[in-house]
Amino acid sequence: MLSRVADSLFWMARNVERADNNARLIAVKLISQLENANHQEELEDNWEELIQISGYQSQYSQQYEKITDRNVIEFLFFSSKNPNSVFTGITIARENAKAVREIIPQELWEMLNSFYLEIKECSESSWEIEKVNDYCELVKNRSLLFQGIVEATLQRGDAYLFMEMGKYIERAEKTSRILDVFFHKNLESYKNVEIVTYHHWWSVLQSVSGHEAYIKTYRPLINDQNVAEFLIFNPSFPRSMYFCIQKVKGAFEMIEDHHVEHYSKSLFEALEYLENDLTDYTIEEVIAHGPHSFLQSFQNRCNKIGQLIAKTYYLGEVTVT
């Protein structure tokens, strides 16, 4: 496969996943804002969390003087100046799909093209904050449709595998960022600690569509250690860090036909090293040594793996956030 084709497929899948993640985070914050309307103290800084998760704090501060719900939504969803926004992600994904129309199913191109036009219309209109949840639902539904078309119609060859790597490396890194930011928040200072703590970790689970799966595993008890264990180590939840890295490694092994050559050795070792950490550590060890350092290390190694994928297969530059 030509490197330019692999590059387009990798980034097409990665940008759809990135847009989907942003939409989920915004939708959860809007719901949380409604449900916690009587706890204004908890709402004062919760929109800042989304900027921290995106990793684009400096870009945000260059465009906006303060953090408000409307500013954050505009930045993460509608802004063409933000390389991490929903609008930018779908625009890039559509351009990538256009470049490989002869490789992907016709249904996939038509769906992404329509998706782009819908998002463009939202971005160019004078959007109302009351309609943002509908926009988020649109993105989530189109993302699921995108994945469904891929699973139902795309041959399980190199094209599919490069899309798998792009999707799951993005998802793994975003899950770790969500956990990292939410672990940082000091909840003890709030008056209604129990209520705030519950909604805090409920928001984390909802952000990755993991609440129902979590409840089936841990029953109604929601606490930081169980949520962290579920999202880091669970081998069967599709958005856990361990599951995602397994999928990236599996796609890599299939591309290489289960052989490690000199050009792919560095990528194999990086994936092996990260997988071993997720296998060898326990949640008790992560908590004892500090979740921030563990999650930061994971994010750095995800960025490194993204760069190694680009280097190994001569893809375009992978942006580090």
Q: Would you write up a description of this structure?
A:
The protein is an all-alpha fold. It has one domain (3-312). It is built from 16 helices and no strands. It has helices at 3-35, 40-43, 46-54, 57-63, 69-78, 86-99, 106-124, 132-153, 158-184, 193-207, 211-218, 224-233, 241-255, 265-280, 283-289, 291-312. The longest helix is centred in the first third of the chain and has 33 residues, at 3-35.
Please tally the helical runs, counting DSSP H or I stretches of 4 or more residues. 16
Give the CA-based shape: globular
Q: What's the number of structural domains?
A: 1
How large a portion of the residues is in β-strands, by DSSP E? under 5%
The end-to-end span amounts to 28 Å
Overall pLDDT confidence: 91
| Helix/sheet category | mainly alpha
Task: Please estimate the helix content.
Answer: over 70%
Using the CA coordinates, give the radius of gyration: 19 Å
Query: Unreliable stretches, pLDDT < 50, 5 or more residues?
Result: none
Please write the string of helix (H) and strand (E) elements.
HHHHHHHHHHHHHHHH
Question: How would a crystallographer describe the biggest sheet?
Answer: none
Q: Please give the number of β-strands.
A: 0
